[in-house]
Amino acid sequence: MSVNAVVIKIASRCNLNCSYCYMYNHADQSYLRQPKIMSESVYTAAMETMLNHSKQQGTHHKFALIMHGGEPTLVGVRRFRWFVETARSILGERLMLVAIQTNALLLNPNWAQLFQELEVTVSVSLDGTAEQHDAFRVDHQGKGSHQRTVNGIDVLHEQGVQTRIICVANPAARGDLTYQHFRQLGITKMDFLFPDITHDTKQAWYGSYGETPVADFMIQAFDAWLDEDNRDVKVRIFYNLLRSFMGDSPGSEAFGNPLLNYLIVNTDGAIEGTDALRVCDEGLVDTGLNVLSNEFDQLAQGNSLLFQASEAGLPLCAKCQACSEVAICGGGQFPHRYRKGSGFDNPSAWCDDIKKLFHHVRNRTGLFDVRKSA
Ligand code: SF4
Ligand code: SF4
After folding, report:
1. Fewer beta carbons within 10 angstroms: which end of the chain, N or C?
2. DSSP for 241-310?
3. Who lines ligand 2 at CB under 6 A?
4. Is the CB–ligand 1 distance for residue 195 below 6 Å?
């Protein structure tokens, strides 16, 4: 197995309490057992584990390191600087990218200057206009966070720090208005995510929004992006989808059943699998491994599901194997296939949405999957 990215949870708690958050408001509640902030000894062990893995992979192997939480800025500016400088000092040339995913509430000029100085790539979670965002992304008092997040983005832009927006598709909102809102904020890089649900939870969370709520949102956003026709604006999911139709690999987790090529290091040093599995059931992300005493290549003993996902990809169910969209869709993100009883042997719970989105993209662009026509 080859791990190319590590998502490191330097803080386990958050200053928000988003209603859909897989950390705090789904089946898995294991964050309660985590230290609030990663210790220096655990962090150093994590960097050494990454270095060992990188050396095993050969001289050209490089890592991306994504600072995550909870909310990673809760560690404070001084400790964040230490985290980044320690990573660079241990991994050297093998560290190709340091990124942070933040809700931006705590950002101020000090943070922005630090990101610029340390060349940290910044992604901010924002779910659209105030009305859209505040429907889900609330603080511990139930107050919306949109204005505070926009203030944080403004601070980044004032200091010249480019920002990528990550937005979970919101079926209660219009995708085109969401896209236009981001553009008004000066955003040129964004991504729209399928909400993390399973067959067991979809009805409770999205049952009242119609047959294909995510496709409807995505199609509106896609059309707004095409209509603007600005080559400088990149919407990752759509850009990758168009490349897939032209024969490239999907290039993201959303489609194509890609190999799992990243691991999570939790705040106590536990080595874990993709966070989205937390919406499926308690314990699925666990490996029993820890950077304090284990290496990444022990994953086979720690969690056979994750090992299989990283070595060969999860096998597709019979319906996906027979589906005309399988070459591009690949069964969707594997946590979304989960159903109690049959596990991951199902199509994505977003299957109808995926088909509708693909159909629209073909109709709108005239692109047909070159693999089908070959
Ligand atoms: S900001 Fe992120 S980590 Fe915090 S509650 Fe919201 S989704 Fe969860
Ligand atoms: S999830 Fe649905 S669209 Fe995707 S491959 Fe499976 S059956 Fe086809």
Report:
1. C
2. HHHHHTT----SSSSS-----EEEE-TTSEEE--GGGGGT-TTTTEEEEETTT--GGGHHHH-HHHHHHH
3. 319-320, 323, 325-326, 329, 331-332, 347-348, 351, 354-355
4. no
